[in-house]
């Protein structure tokens, strides 16, 4: 199969999986959105995709989920936050940071990003800490799952290239 077509199909498939993990495996947390597994997939894919493909998968898949779930006001913020998170994790792993540190910094970026977006959306600076704490369980769960499966996923993905 042509390399460009193979890459395009992979990006489309992972974007669809990102959408499903974000929209359908979700626990609502009131007006703050929902807890999901998007960060988990970003972490897994950071070891197997190039940065541009990773940013597309992370940004588009999660933003579409926000639109689908009725959180359109978060879609723009989500695209930026998830794209930056994906890029940061990718770069840290390429610079041989410990996997848990790369994932941890990615989650920290996500927590700060959503905290700031909630401040912008509500015009209440005190909402930052509430948002941070509401998103922390998602980040921690995703890091733990990704640490367990990261190396296995890399090996599996290499078999299909």
- Straight-line N-to-C gap: 11 Å
Report the top-level CATH class: Mainly Alpha
CATH topology: Arp2/3 complex 21 kDa subunit ARPC3
The total number of structural domains is 1
SSE arrangement:
Layout: H1 3-23, E1 27-28, E2 34-35, H2 38-45, H3 51-69, H4 72-94, H5 99-122, H6 127-159
Antiparallel strand pairs: 1-2
Q: Main traits of this protein?
A:
161 residues; 6 helices; 2 strands; Arp2/3 complex 21 kDa subunit ARPC3; mainly alpha
Quick synopsis:
The protein has helices at residues 3-23, 38-45, 51-69, 72-94, 99-122, 127-159, and strands at 27-28, 34-35. With 161 residues, it is an all-alpha fold.
Word description of this protein:
With 161 residues, the chain is mainly α. It has one domain (3-159): Arp2/3 complex 21 kDa subunit ARPC3, CATH 1.10.1760. 80% of the residues lie in helices and 2% in strands. The chain contains six helices and two strands, in the order αββααααα. The protein has helices at residues 3-23, 38-45, 51-69, 72-94, 99-122, 127-159, and strands spanning 27-28, 34-35. A two-stranded antiparallel ribbon has the order 1-2. The longest helix has 33 residues, at 127-159. The protein is globular, with a radius of gyration of 15 Å. It starts with a helix and ends with a helix. The relative contact order is 0.14.
């Amino acid at each position: 199969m042509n390399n460009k077509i193979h890459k395009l199909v992979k990006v489309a498939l992972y974007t669809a999986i990102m959408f499903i993990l974000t929209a359908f495996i979700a626990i609502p947390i009131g007006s703050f959105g929902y807890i999901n597994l998007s960060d988990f997939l970003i972490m897994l894919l950071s070891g197997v995709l190039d940065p541009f493909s990773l940013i597309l998968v992370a940004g588009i898949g999660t933003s579409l989920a926000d639109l689908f779930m009725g959180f359109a006001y978060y879609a723009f913020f989500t695209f930026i936050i998830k794209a930056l998170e994906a890029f940061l994790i990718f770069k840290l792993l390429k610079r041989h940071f410990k996997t848990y540190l790369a994932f941890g910094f990615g989650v920290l970026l996500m927590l700060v990003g959503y905290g700031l977006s909630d401040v912008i959306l509500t015009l209440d600076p005190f909402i930052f800490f509430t948002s941070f704490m509401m998103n922390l369980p998602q980040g921690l769960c995703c890091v733990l799952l990704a640490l367990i499966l990261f190396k296995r996923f890399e090996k599996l993905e290499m078999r299909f290239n």
